[in-house]
Amino acid sequence: MAEIDYPVKLEVDYPDRKLNRLTTFFRIFMAIPILIILGLLIGASSKWGWQAGWGVAGLVVLPTILMLLFRKKYPRWWFDWNLALTKFSARVSVYLALLTDVYPSTDEEQSVKIKMNYPDAQKDLNRWLPLVKWIMAIPHYIVLAFLAIAVFVVVIIAWFAILFTGNYPRSLFDFVVGVYRWSLRVSGYAFILVTDKYPPFSLSA
Q1: Strand 8-12 vs strand 112-116: parallel, antiparallel, or unpaired?
Q2: Cβ atoms within 10 A of the Cβ of 73, count?
Q3: pTM for the model
Q4: Burial letters 1-19, b for 16+ CB under 10 A, else e
């Protein structure tokens, strides 16, 4: 399949070895410390951002909308924060979904690779679109809600597969990564606001 040309990209390296059965079995408990750290980061930043569902809590959204609307400017440090928080959240999500057994780092890329370029607000972003992007993305929310249910089921199946074989079935792995990729594109479009290009309805890279 041809690669999709979209300015927000996600790749997760498929494990090249047997996954740890013990940490897989206790994954939800293993993740508690890093989930607390992520929750503290999100909570500390929420007064400057926008607490909402679907993985956008803690992002600097409303201030960015206002800056684009009135100044047509996207402060670089706001983008850097949004990108860093997105990457960290993705590493935690990938760990919870059993796609890796390497404990999530707070700063290293590890097996999760996200590409999201800093936008030229003057040239590439329409100052009015941020007001309606979250509405325009509603069809994606609906589809992703059903896909999230499917991911939950797939992760349970993968949990059993890893316990018995040590491997994450490749087709299931690719499906979960595809859903995460789709969700990230929607987040980049509607909340992180790095592009005006409407996200594709696709799991493909």
Answers
A1: antiparallel
A2: 14
A3: 0.91
A4: eeeeebbbbbebeebeeeb
How many C-beta atoms surround the C-beta of residue 108 within 10 A? 10
Domain that holds residue 110: 8-14+21-190
Question: Domain for residue 61, yes or no?
Answer: yes
Tokens of 99: 């796609």
**Could you read off the pLDDT of 68-119 as tens digits, one per residue?**
999 999 999 999 999 999 999 999 999 999 999 999 999 999 999 999 999 9
Decide: 91 and 110 in contact? Cβ < 8 Å.
yes
Q: How many domains, the chain?
A: 1
Whether 202 maps to a domain, the answer reads no
> ∠ CA 67-113-26 to the nearest 5 degrees?
110
Positive or negative CA dihedral for 62, 63, 68, 74?
Answer: negative
In this structure, the number of other CB atoms found within 10 A of the CB of residue 120 comes to 9
Query: What does the pLDDT look like over 170-186, one tens digit per residue?
Result: 999 999 999 999 999 99
